[in-house]
């Protein structure tokens, strides 16, 4: 979740008067269509909150609703039901609980975290989310005897109310030198395994494709582990599902194929969207963006047994600080959006949209100079931009109601629904 420049937090202003807003952003105008402030949605108990400066969408057939406010630097969320979810707060180490569509005043869990730069309370995943006994996984950065560690804890037998209680440490990962590129996103895969990503922490080892660098050290990788943190049939040293990852804050599975995709930040250029199959080597620190733009070949990479390199399926030549990726696992927003991809960024608060190709191995992008699958200008980036003014997006999820939920680092949760 790398921020390339400072992003001021939005000032949340409570208003009693319903206001319609028209805004122009990045060269196009879109109607907000949000004229339901203060109403209760028919899709659960979320109330639509007043919003003086709402996000803007280019599709007039969709509407953005603010449904939660008052969060402090939220990073990740996990749904338990259609109006019940957990939301993490980065620097204060709090796990907030939304029940019946309302943010509860007290956290269900709170720990001391190191929140310097991209460290903090970063990732959450829930197994058996709708069952009576839920298992909650948390990824956060903490200090242990003066040493900084990124750790994953498992919290068993949570009923969905009250406090989480003590957790069991299942992954004890590096946190230094950093302090950025800590990763932290987690997801339960179709195979029931826990997938989580950590960035390079500014290290230069074999996992960052330095042949003579230090041995593999649990950085720049995606883990696939069981509930106890044990690696299961990963292929690459039998420990890592993927490696060569610079800085990622986005993981999701294609709901139709079960294949993992991720997003990745470049240092100043070439943010990426990748298809991540077992043994994937993303190429960092030798390659960011398409390999034919780097003047290098795969011979420069550290290739472990069973590993492979593949170009990103899309890149931005100027880094946007892309964060989460989400396949909309629903038809509620119409056929255009069903089972296709949304990506957010932290720099601009933009929401990007992409159509997956027919065999679901890449993206369908035509015209606007994007035939090379790289956005080389603002104009080309606009062609894949669906929304703006979200205030720095940190998470995107398909809700149990089938609508798209967008979490903003500025402290709000938005929902995208049909305009009618």
What are the defining features of this structure?
420 residues; mainly beta; Neuraminidase; six-stranded mixed beta sheet; 38% strand; disordered N terminus
Describe the structure.
The strands form 7 sheets. Strands 3, 24, 25, 26, 27 and 29 form a 6-stranded antiparallel β-sheet that branches. A 6-stranded mixed β-sheet has the order 14-15-16-17-21-22, with no helix packed on it. The chain is globular and about 55 Å long. It has one domain (71-401): TolB, C-terminal domain (Neuraminidase). The protein has 420 residues and is an all-beta fold. Residues 2-42 have low confidence and may be disordered. The protein has one helix at 378-382, and strands at residues 22-25, 28-31, 56-57, 62-68, 74-81, 84-89, 94-99, 102-103, 109-110, 121-127, 134-144, 147-158, 168-174, 186-188, 194-198, 221-225, 240-243, 251-253, 260-264, 271-276, 280-281, 308-309, 314-316, 322-327, 341-345, 351-356, 363-364, 374-375, 385-388, 393-398, 404-408, 413-418.
Principal-axes shape call: globular
Query: For the terminal residues, how far apart are their CA atoms?
Result: 34 Å
Any idea what the radius of gyration is?
20 Å
Estimate what percentage of residues fall within beta strands.
35-45%
Mean pLDDT: 90
CATH superfamily: TolB, C-terminal domain
Helix/sheet category: mainly beta
The main β sheet shows up as: 6 strands, antiparallel
The CATH architecture would be 6 Propeller
Q: CATH top level?
A: Mainly Beta
Number of strands: 32
